[in-house]
Amino acid sequence: MLKKLIQGQSPQYILEYSYFYGRKLTVNSDVLIPRYETEELVAFVTSDYQRQSTGKLLDIGTGSGAISLVLSQELSSSWEISASDISQEALAIAKTNFKSHGCEIKTIKSDLFKAIEGRFDVIVSNPPYIKTTETAVMDETVLNNEPNIALFAGVDGLDFYREFAKYVDDYLNPTGAFYLEFGYEQKEALRALFGHYLPNYDITFKNDLAGHPRMMRGVKQ
Questions:
Q1: Interatomic CA distance for residues 199 and 211, integer angstroms
Q2: pTM for the whole thing?
Q3: pLDDT(86) > 90
């Protein structure tokens, strides 16, 4: 283990587990290591819906399944939770975590909305949002270990958000909402992007515990 650590492997991948929201999750190099900032995204959703007895929720780009797993336990047991990912390998890890925690969560192999059917009350995602030009300033442990497909989103880091904004309204119920994580320098770009594609949505931005804007919520008006 020490040799692997010296060679630059991530501790979580060496141990094959990580913690998220107090839950121990299996991880490997097919999935992103869950971050503490994403726990705040989960708390954002939970604070809005923990008193709602039922609903349908979709977690896009689920990776290890961290977001959907915790929400399935924090929300009412009557909620119907689905988790999608473009990677079959990532979905295999998510299924392992769902089974080990006793969660009934539907998994879907899908590139964003392409294989998604129906409408949801909540759509949540921690998508790729790093610019492809930022590799020079990134931690080498991240670059050398974690899946690029879960990290990078074009030259401006907004590729996912553009596609998401074009189609999300077709997959939300009339009173539904979406919740997204983003990079701390992307707030104004996202304000303009979602204002263009979804002018009839009320967009709220939320800071993380460090005071950086890192989460957004969109609710149809």
A1: 27
A2: 0.91
A3: yes
